[in-house]
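From: lab user (bench 3)
To: helpdesk
Subject: output format question, protein + zinc ion

Hello, I'm new to running complex predictions and I'm not sure whether the block I got back is the full result or only part of it. Here's what I submitted:
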Amino acid sequence: MNRINVTVWDEAEGAIGPYPQGIHNAIADFLRASGQFNEVRIALQPQSEHGLTEDVLNSTDVLVYWAHCFHHQVEDAIVERIARRVLDGMGLILLHSAHASKIFRRLTGTDTDRLRWREVGERERVWRIEPGHPITHGVPEYFDIPNSEMYGEQFGIPAPDELLFISWYEGGEVFRSGCTFKRGLGKIFFFAPGHETFPIYYMPEMQKIITNAVAWAAPAHIPAITGGKMDFIRPEASV
Ligand code: ZN
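Helpdesk reply: Thanks, we reran it on our side. This is the complete output you should expect:
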């Protein structure tokens, strides 16, 4: 039986754009409907400790993170707590404007909020460029988002470990819109589409990619790791 526990985190608790129950519920709904996960919980920034207590994070295998406007209000201690869990093996899915989040910067060490952007509702074409990857399984060669927010290069990320999707926009820009990173024992996937005024998370291609990403990012069984100061034992003493 699959025992993957997922926490969907959102900076806001109320209705937003085409999401009457909030983006977190829209995402949690399709993750639950996939039947692939043991539990899908929700945590919200306005909650105590941003809903990400030690207990919540320690029982989370994959954290799905959506945020846009309130990155600066996320407490540094909580950012560090998330980072430690990722380094210990928790998966992290960073959606849309989480590109500018403290946790993305903390884990990459770069200025991830550097990009071009424009909000005119132009068409975005998302190209799948790694057809053999678990995250792109069942995803067509490309799909179009009729109305999207443009995010364009130059994007201030380090070279990703894997580049899975590239987006082209009607206005001519391109963007590395689906990237993976490995940090410590944790797997990270950044996926750019998902502006809150457009119904993008209702698209089946989006739901497929995010569901695949959660399954991919779940930690494998990780044996206990030995570290710290070691006693010196002469080889002959051990025989
Ligand atoms: Zn946006």
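A quick orientation on your result: Strands lie at 5-10, 39-44, 62-66, 91-95, 116-128, 142-152, 162-169, 174-183, 186-191. Let us know if anything else is unclear.
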